[in-house]
Amino acid sequence: MQKKDNNKAVAMVLKSVLVIVILTVVSTAQAQNRDVMSAYQRNMQPLLEKIVGAPTDNERYNANELFVQMFDEALHVEESFHWKWNFGSTVSILTSSDRQFRIITWPVVRDNGEYECFGFVQSYNAKTEQYDVYQLHDKSDELISTDEVVLDPDNWLGSVYQELIETKYEGKISYTLIGWTGVNALIQRKVIEPILFRSNSSRPQFGQALFRREKNLRRVVFEYSRNAMVNVRFDEQTIRTYENKKVKKKGRTINVQVPHEEKAKMIIFDEIAPMLPGMEGLPQYYVPTGTEMAYIFLNGRWELRDNAQGRLSDPKLNKEFEPIHKDAPAYDMNR
């Protein structure tokens, strides 16, 4: 009996030692990863400063090539998904709340005012239980019908993404990005860009039929004058909708609109149009009209409302919808 008790005690001691060894190994590995990622951060920072501030295209692109290479290496380090990069406002890093993916984007500005965007998507692979890395290649100049095509990392409508919107319907999560780029000296562009990951795949797909009653639309593209300020932003507000109902009144049936108050996710944006007649199709002459519109997320899709009016949760505070504040693009690098 005593021998049996001794064996139990030995087994418990061995188990405790094994747990301590495993925790030590894990802790050591995590510390090593932190050291590695810190080294990448330190070495990449001066390259980023050259990307932004070097005086010639050649110098900026040489620095960017090394920056992309080092970023790619860093993102392949184990547990790198959880590293908090600190590149200020020059590099946009957006992470989904469910940790499904992270998207990293930044621009390189040429002497002639043209922008080229670069980036990575780091996304979870359920089969391998690891994060895969996809480099994004800006093919904006080669794309036709940019609002209708489904794109992938090798053929990407380059943008610096400023917001990541998550919506849920019947248990399924949808992701929508809001992005901006300078395009060239005359034109800038904003996009409302759905991003999708197919079942059992970590590969991102840009563009999706997520827009109600707009059959061929895969993303919303706004191209307009570099001198204009056009806002596209996400909000969540209580809105008033109307439902058509048939009611009986004085012995006859009539159609009435019944108002409903409901909370909705929305993307509010400025309507744009040519500043003068005859300039249709020339985005360098497009400016805000003064009208605000919205895509409202209803029943799993973004639905366009040209008369959407956001309302506050407290009815006593409701007032006429005010124009949204015009902010300069966060990534405008005009020299």
What do these coordinates show?
- There is one protein chain.
- The chain is of the alpha+beta class and 335 residues long.
- It has helices at 2-53, 57-75, and strands at 92-95, 101-109, 115-125, 130-137, 160-169, 172-181, 187-197, 204-206, 220-225, 232-249, 252-274, 286-298, 301-305, 310-311.
- The strands form three sheets. Strands 5, 6, 7, 8 and 9 form a five-stranded antiparallel sheet that branches.
- The longest helix is centred in the N-terminal third of the chain and has 52 residues, at 2-53.
- The radius of gyration is 26 Å and the shape is flat.
- The model is unreliable at 21-29 and 316-324 (pLDDT under 50).
**How much is the radius of gyration in Å?**
26 Å
Assembly classification: single chain
| N- and C-termini, Cα separation | 85 Å
Shape: flat
Count all strands and give the number: 14
Describe this protein with a few key phrases.
335 residues; 5-stranded antiparallel β-sheet; 14 strands; 2 helices; alpha+beta; 2 domains
Structure summary:
The chain has two helices and 14 strands. It has 335 residues and is an alpha+beta fold. It is flat, with a radius of gyration of 26 Å.
Topology (SSEs and partners):
Blueprint: H1 2-53, H2 57-75, E1 92-95, E2 101-109, E3 115-125, E4 130-137, E5 160-169, E6 172-181, E7 187-197, E8 204-206, E9 220-225, E10 232-249, E11 252-274, E12 286-298, E13 301-305, E14 310-311
Antiparallel strand pairs: 1-2, 2-3, 3-4, 5-6, 6-7, 7-8, 7-9, 10-11, 10-14, 11-12, 12-13
